[in-house]
Description:
Blueprint: E1 8-13, E2 19-28, H1 32-42, H2 50-70, E3 79-86, E4 90-97, H3 116-123, E5 126-132, E6 135-143
Antiparallel strand pairs: 1-2, 2-3, 3-4, 4-6, 5-6
Helix pairs in contact: 1-2, 2-3
Amino acid sequence: xxxxxxxxxxxxxxxxxxxxxxxxxxxxxxxxxxxxxxxxxxxxxxxxxxxxxxxxxxxxxxxxxxxxxxxxxxxxxxxxxxxxxxxxxxxxxxxxxxxxxxxxxxxxxxxxxxxxxxxxxxxxxxxxxxxxxxxxxxxxxxxxxxxxxxxxxxxxxxxxxxx
Length: 163
């Protein structure tokens, strides 16, 4: 699937000889970026359990939306980076945005909006928000069920082309 001309896909062998997929794409800071993030996750459908893919799709939407809303980004000039890192034992999604809007805690359930981090906290195995240089990086990580560990990524007999 062709995501965008500036999508970067890297495949590398992990220590156990399996493949790890990392996709990183720079996106315009507008709501259409949610669809691109979902398409990146959908590429993993054949390798992951359906329930995990559903959770990843929801969290991809929430991470991108969080960056757009809390970061008060300007779609005309700001960009975000969406990253999917899929290994044998876990899948991590992350969004980097160019703001100082560091968000150290999720909102409470009483708040009318901004429940994205509450959702992420409930369904991700681990998540966090950190400052990396001049960007805010929000990420969520999910364990791959043990029966799927050997099948995540690609067939180890052939390396896929990066595009």
